[in-house]
Amino acid sequence: MKVAIGTHNRAKVKAVQNVVNTYFDDIEFLEVDVPSNVSSQPFSDEETRQGAINRALNTLEATGAELNFGLEGGVREIDGIMYCCNWGALALKNGQVLTAAGAQFMLPEEIAKKLRAGKELGPIMDEYTNEKDTRHHKGAIGVLTANLVDRKEMFEHIVTLLIGQYFFLKKEK
User: Which residue ranges make up each domain of the chain?
Assistant: First the structure.
């Protein structure tokens, strides 16, 4: 079975591989760099969800794989508090799209101010931690949860929700 992932981000790719390998055998993984067709820093659940859907559909178009994953991280504001939000989409070969959301957690005000000023979370976290490519490893969630949950684990939960919906859909047919 061909499974395509609409990114080269190591945390997202590993999340898909870990979950898919748990439930399927004989998998060929394809990684493709596809656009999200939303802003580089999505600023709402709606925009972040749409980015995941767009990545999944663009991945399907690029590969024609049976399962096509799009994963997107963004931010949203509630009552003046900035939260990180995360969405995933699974586009099936027939064009049907399943979606799921994951963990949301507060961002410190000093990070929120930089986001409101137009900066992207990944580079902000690199600056905040004095590290490089945090988005490919622990991510903001790893930093802000004292490494109790990393970005790969957060996306594994979303991918598991998507695979579960896929199994339910197949069972219903």
Answer: 2-105+150-172
